[in-house]
């Protein structure tokens, strides 16, 4: 299964050479568009030659046990037109009342390619992501062994500054075959305000394997106080006994342009 994700990565790299014209890809003129803070990632990539850092902290209560995580950090670099390389740095999860395990999460390396307005559908964007989690963190936090995944975030612009978005994720756990494959769908509906400088979304996220599924509902907001800087928050709760009780998070993101390339 790890080979499947690596094959998709190779296909994305090869496809980048035949990507759509650069004019169809995000540019430095576009405002910052982050994967944070919800479960649904952005359907767009960072512009070619740009670097984006997204980080935040979360407080979570699961079955009465409190934990605090931070800093959850994702680093994104536009390495080609419509294509980015991203790394999820180790995130420390600390138990506040010894009811949850503590430790670092794994390092995850991924490649993402955007297909803006495929088949001529105006306002529709979709991307393909393939990545691999390396067994660098605590098994109690991230599980055992290598963990490949493939992902497809999408978005569609609706009238009156509304946006529908979602994502499909397939993950594999070669060292824990009972979890293979794990399917994670999401759906989000959002509204933009103040000339698109801010937005509020309501989001559903699920996780389905061969055990009891997890369902989460949350509300999130983003405020782009400059074109390349953003503050965000999220708050949500679980919808069944196998999910978290509730959680709250805040974050900050920024983008640096013109680091290399055109």
Strand portion: over 45%
| Total count of helical runs of at least 4 residues | 2
Rg, alpha carbons: 18 Å
Distance between the termini: 37 Å
Low-pLDDT windows of residues: 1-21
Class of secondary structure makeup: mainly beta
Q: Any guess at the CATH architecture of the domain at 2-20 and 111-256?
A: Beta Barrel
> Which topology of the domain at 2-20 and 111-256 does CATH recognise?
Porin
What's the level 1 CATH class of the domain at 2-20 and 111-256? Mainly Beta
Which whole number gives the mean pLDDT?
Answer: 89
* Oligomeric state of the chains present here: single chain
Biggest pleated-sheet summary: 12 strands, antiparallel, barrel
Helix proportion: under 10%
User: What do we call the CATH homologous superfamily of the domain at 2-20 and 111-256?
Assistant: monomeric porin ompg
Q: Give the SSE string.
A: HEEEEEEEHEEEEEEE
Shape: globular
User: What is the topology, as strand order, of the major beta sheet?
Assistant: 1-2-3-6-7-8-9-10-11-12-13-14
Number of strands: 14
Question: Brief description of this entry?
Answer:
The chain has 262 residues and is mainly beta. The protein has two helices and 14 strands.
Q: What does this protein look like?
A:
The radius of gyration is 18 Å and the shape is globular. With 262 residues, it is mainly β. The protein has a domain at 2-20 and 111-256: monomeric porin ompg (Porin). Residues 1-21 have low confidence and may be disordered. The chain is built from 2 helices and 14 strands.
